[in-house]
Amino acid sequence: MATKIDYYAVLEVSREASSDELKKAYRKQAMKYHPDRNPGDAAAEARFKEINQAYDVLKDEQKRAAYDRFGHAAFEGGGAGPGGFDFGGGFAGGGGLGDIFEQMFGDMMGGGRRGGGGARRAGADIQAQAEITLAEAFAGVKKSITINTRVMCESCEGTGSKDGESGVSVCPSCHGAGKVRAQQGFFVVERACPTCHGAGKVVKDPCPACRGVGTIQKSRTLEVAIPAGVEDGMRIRLTGEGESGGKGADPGDLYVHVAIQASDLFQRDGSNIYCRVPLRMSQAALGTEIEVPVIDGGRASVKIPAGTQSGEHFRLRGKGFSVLRSSARGDMYIQVTVETPQHLNKRQRELLEEFEKEAGENIKGSPEHAGFFSRVKDFFEGKS
């Protein structure tokens, strides 16, 4: 079954957001996940589609009103409508959104109340984000996140009825099945019952707290266990922590997207860690021993041999990143960069000039330098 996404969570807005707030949030999210900005990123492309789906519904007042009351059930039925949603037989009869509007606004015109409570459809899945450091991703961490979601109404215990279970009766149109069938030419089409909208039951007097829906909006704080070795962009699924579907219905799931902050010291590549270490020219030439940090919080000593060149790597086995669902670790690589000294004083300059004079007579000391300019000389003389 396809995952149901909470359109408000996708756009990162509250359910009370104004049209301007929705538009602003949509533009921000669309710009962030646009395929042109994330070439080859399948996750960003999928997110971009979700953002457009959400805004397509929420920017329209009638669609938004239907979604607020019935969730994704408002768009289930026959053929697909704009934006990839299902609108049954269209707005003008034939079920789908047209019947939902009739139910919603018919009450105001003296049509009486029908259905709406005790829906047995599963609650919608919702999404959230947890931001962690690289060190937390290495060791694993528990994070508290706060989500705005729909929970079961305590006043009516999710029935949607002011009188509880006694105020809920079997739907007279579908006789509790939640579905009806209609003949269309040679075909028999099955769709959600337009009276109870798939609930199989109707409510006589809706609960004033939840207005017959069976669920209410509430903020919840959850603790999410993020495992060691998790990668940036991974999703963690918390079964049953999504929106409530009301009494008798399974709740949806919560999907937590993990975002790992960039580190000032380390760059991660899968299970390997890279650390860029600048050395003074004298250290690289004479050799030295340096102490480097390790992602687990420890330290490691690395011997730098004399004559080390900029760009060389030194490997520390087993000092890299943790591997997801494993006790293994990758390797750590020290990448050396040799710095050219700046702001020399008089004595330093004299020493370097003396060194350069000596180095010019010793081609073995800089073989690449000597070899390169020898080839340049041959080129200008037409020998190569």
TrEMBL record:
Which function does this protein serve?
Participates actively in the response to hyperosmotic and heat shock by preventing the aggregation of stress-denatured proteins and by disaggregating proteins, also in an autonomous, DnaK-independent fashion. Unfolded proteins bind initially to DnaJ; upon interaction with the DnaJ-bound protein, DnaK hydrolyzes its bound ATP, resulting in the formation of a stable complex. GrpE releases ADP from DnaK; ATP binding to DnaK triggers the release of the substrate protein, thus completing the reaction cycle.
According to UniProt, the name of this protein is Chaperone protein DnaJ
Cofactor(s) listed in the protein's UniProt record: Zn(2+)
- Give the CR-type zinc finger regions: 140-219
Q: Does the keyword Translocase apply?
A: no
- Residues bound to Zn(2+) 2 are C171, C174, C193, C196
Query: Which parts are the CXXCXGXG motif repeats?
Result: 153-160, 171-178, 193-200, 207-214
Q: Which domain of life is it from?
A: Bacteria
Say if the entry is tagged with keyword Methyltransferase: no
J domain spans which residues?
6-71
Kindly list the GO molecular function terms attached to this UniProt entry.
ATP binding; heat shock protein binding; unfolded protein binding; zinc ion binding
Q: Which Pfam families match?
A: DnaJ, DnaJ_C, DnaJ_CXXCXGXG
Q: How does it assemble?
A: Homodimer.
Write the record's keywords in alphabetical order, separated by commas.
Answer: Chaperone, Cytoplasm, DNA replication, Metal-binding, Repeat, Stress response, Zinc, Zinc-finger
Q: Where in the cell is it found?
A: Cytoplasm
The gene name on file is: dnaJ
Record-linked Gene3D superfamilies: DnaJ domain, Heat shock protein DnaJ, cysteine-rich domain, Urease metallochaperone UreE, N-terminal domain
Q: What is the lineage of its organism?
A: Bacteria, Pseudomonadati, Pseudomonadota, Alphaproteobacteria, Acetobacterales
Matching SMART domains, A to Z? DnaJ
Residues binding Zn(2+) 1: C153, C156, C207, C210
Q: Name one GO cellular component term.
A: cytoplasm
Q: How is the cofactor bound?
A: Binds 2 Zn(2+) ions per monomer.
Entry note about domains: The J domain is necessary and sufficient to stimulate DnaK ATPase activity. Zinc center 1 plays an important role in the autonomous, DnaK-independent chaperone activity of DnaJ. Zinc center 2 is essential for interaction with DnaK and for DnaJ activity.
Q: Where is the CR-type domain?
A: 140-219
